[in-house]
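Quick one - inputs below.
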Amino acid sequence: MAEALVVGDPGDPRLADYTALTDVELRRRREPAEGLFIAEGEKVIRRALAAGYRMRSMLLSEKWLEAMRDVIEAADAPVYAVTPALAEQVTGYHVHRGALASMQREELPGPERLLAGARRVVVMEAVNDHTNIGAIFRSAAALGMDAVLLSPDCADPLYRRSVKVSMGAVFSVPYARLARWPQDLDAVVRAAGFHLAALTPAPDAVDLGALPRHERLALLLGAEGPGLTRRAQQAADTRVRIPMAHGVDSLNVGAAAAVAFYAVAGSGPEPGVTSPVS
Amino acid sequence: MAEALVVGDPGDPRLADYTALTDVELRRRREPAEGLFIAEGEKVIRRALAAGYRMRSMLLSEKWLEAMRDVIEAADAPVYAVTPALAEQVTGYHVHRGALASMQREELPGPERLLAGARRVVVMEAVNDHTNIGAIFRSAAALGMDAVLLSPDCADPLYRRSVKVSMGAVFSVPYARLARWPQDLDAVVRAAGFHLAALTPAPDAVDLGALPRHERLALLLGAEGPGLTRRAQQAADTRVRIPMAHGVDSLNVGAAAAVAFYAVAGSGPEPGVTSPVS
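Output:
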């Protein structure tokens, strides 16, 4: 594909992947069912491609044609050039970043496969906020977590907002879903040799800094507000807390996650110790 | 004041404090000039009052009258009861939280006064995003930072969005503005006995975990994206970095701030050591 196709009709069926992007409920159902996700903006699109995702099509404002020239030439998919006004008619919002790509989802790996090569994993329970999911992935990537596991009721990391907030980290940190909750914390995660630490603001939990080193550590995070369920906490080996100043609400989940990732990053085996998984 | 006053005219001059709340540029100019700020939602309003701010007036949807009964009865200011539709006409948006209060600003303390009683302070340079400012205050409060100093070009912590994201932490963590930048880093902050540590992703900076203990530590943070200016970094005693995984963009500034606050919280004098400032 070397040329962009100019499209002038918002009802053109070739733009179907991009319709009603602001209708969160609709898109949440449609995208997994149709096997696609939307990458928004030059940087995120390039990262999705670099991570190996296949492009279904791309929708560009004309002024982005030059910046995306190499992507267009390499693309094995149609590229549609539209006016900003038409992009807004189709998607339902003003596409500030001027470039959208519809990408093909890939089958998620099984959690066992992810865990086989990992030493530090995040397990999220019922995190439904797309911004929080994206922020947690971004911090997980920056702070060296190896993988993410999701409870069955977590939201979709490939939803457009999650992808954007993560700055594409949802492409680089491998993730999987646990099928049975909380049973798989034991049957899958502990069975793979992981120590399970549940993050909670409870005053009787162990200070994060006092958590003993574990060669394989799974850090459990709950949603903003309710936090981890009692069932998930009971399924863990340890409950850990971030020491907080008196009288203050807990940190937001993104900040708490970043602190916890930082704290456990240094709690693995000493450098030079041979790990059976490396 | 024991009764709410029902107001039915969106042009009523008594509602002037609440007009055009979605016009960020207008409100940024108006609110400091008129000496007010807006607290939104029951929890934030209660925290502003608990922190000692004086209420100018309150605007409530009728269904909030009952929940706010004690606040209304204690208020030394008029309370206006309106329909949700009228609240939207006045403010320009649908007021989900159903309660807004216009609060009187207080004069900020001088930075010297704040520093006299502090051991761990945050210094922000040119942080202009209201969400980021709020998130940093929230983490600062939770993780025990004693005070915040702002460069002259930082945005307003009392802007509605900052207040909301901070969950009211902008009321509990004292803050001040430095007048001369970056000169006051030396003339005010270092002069008060603080070691200045500049947070940067630069690979040649010292790992945060290797920062020696300092009885008084000021942590410098820049804006998302550009980070600290060279001038600010040069004015610091040390440049520190959060160790990051290879090939990953830096953390967002809120996550980086939380990690840094956590890391330096433990780097003060040992418990039991008498500090000249305590």
